[in-house]
Amino acid sequence: MKDFLLKKDKIKNLLISASEEWDTFVPWKDLGEDLQFVKLPGAGKEDFLNKLSLEYGSPLIPPKTIAFPQLELLFEFEEGKIKEKVPPPTKKLLFGLRACDVKAILFVDDFFRRNFEDIYYLNRTMDKLLVLVGCKTPPRDCFCTSTKTGPFLPVPRSLGEVRKEGFDLQLVDIGDSYLVEIGSEKGKEFIESYKSFFEVASKKEVELSKDAKKRAEEAITLKVDFEKAVKNFCEDKVSRKVYEKIAERCIYCGGCLYVCPTCTCFNVFDGKKGKRGERSRNWDACVFEGYTRETSGHNPRPEKWQRTSRRYEHKLKYDYLTTGMSGCVGCGRCLATCPVNIGISQVIEEVAKNEKRISSLSGKD
């Protein structure tokens, strides 16, 4: 399969052209220099793209917000009549994703299709093109080589209608250009549709991309025995003491869950005024005491350690046993945002060792 070349000075014009057909989202620096995935505006695209940033670790807020917003209106009602607020289906181009976020998107896609097709989510995401830009300098807290979710993903040997590894196109930084690898038929069609922006890569450029991938992998210093930890979770070898030690330090702010690219917990609430009202949903977190509280007031998980157990066993046991996919993609956002320095990587490391003492999690040297 041929690889292609995309020169960096052509990217802005490519995105402007593509935005005529696609709702195009890119990593963009806001006024506070924070990164987030933002849709190209209808006007002023060239100025907007001056703040395009492909040289980044990963935005703290994951791109799942594009299809699963933190707060959304589901429907309005008045005197027995319901008016649904289902978003119209649109074609979306997500350009500049990291490998871990691509895997997370596949995970969340599966969740919203698994037992019930959530039309609110699916209409926003069913027709999408995922363009991965591999990490040149991975973040300090990233451990994606341990979870096998980055910094680059394997290129499929053959193309099919369904993207096998998650991406449609994968870009590798080789200096003034990106080497472009094709991951699906949709990715191939995109190159054909915008062929004036691409050229066939030479053997030398392919070799440069291999070197770039190797350097990126070597730059990741945080390593954990992920497979052993998942095995211990699945075999119920994790003791209550592990969760109690985490609960001693965790302040249950929910920060780790709000920045997690695979968390899908939400709450639904109604607002009513007179004969009119509306139903909305918003992100929630399984570590919050109210998440499992029943209308009777009874809570099946009243203790902090129980809710902590729910979180880690859901991500590293139940998800894996149910779907074959883990609820952790090794992005490191939880550790980066935690005010008391607890990351899932630390939990994984301790569980993999299967030790009785949890010294690093208890804050002791």
UniProtKB/TrEMBL annotation:
The keyword ATP-binding does not apply. GO terms for molecular function: iron-sulfur cluster binding; metal ion binding. It holds the Pfam family Fer4_22. Residues 241-271, 319-350 form the 4Fe-4S ferredoxin-type domain. Keywords: Iron, Iron-sulfur, Metal-binding. The keyword Metal-binding applies. It comes from the Bacteria. This is 4Fe-4S ferredoxin-type domain-containing protein. It comes from bacterium (Candidatus Ratteibacteria) CG15_BIG_FIL_POST_REV_8_21_14_020_41_12.
